[in-house]
Design a protein that fits this description.
Elements (H helix, E strand, L loop, with lengths): L5 H7 L24 H15 L16 H8 L7
Length: about 80
């Protein structure tokens, strides 16, 4: 598996009430960590604000929000290189 950038983890963590303080792994299931449908909306706003991007509707589906890794794979191409 691949590593999830710390900056992305810092954006995710406030939306995952059941996550411990350790590193998030790509295979961690977002629903199991406490992300619900309202949390998804808030998380999207935070991702868009943090990276200055707009996440296209066509990538917003259940598979995108299955795991930390699937969400990062969807968002990473939108993130400007820093």
């Amino acid at each position: 598996m691949f590593e999830i950038p710390q900056e992305f983890q810092n954006i995710l963590r406030p939306h995952l009430p059941f996550a411990d303080s350790g590193m998030l792994a790509a295979f961690d299931e977002l629903a199991g960590l406490g992300l619900d449908s309202m949390g998804v909306v808030r998380l999207l706003v935070d991702i868009e604000d943090a990276y200055g991007v707009q996440v296209p509707d066509e990538i917003l589906d259940e598979a995108t929000f299955a795991t930390v890794g699937s969400l990062w794979e969807a968002v990473a191409p939108l993130v400007p290189h820093r």
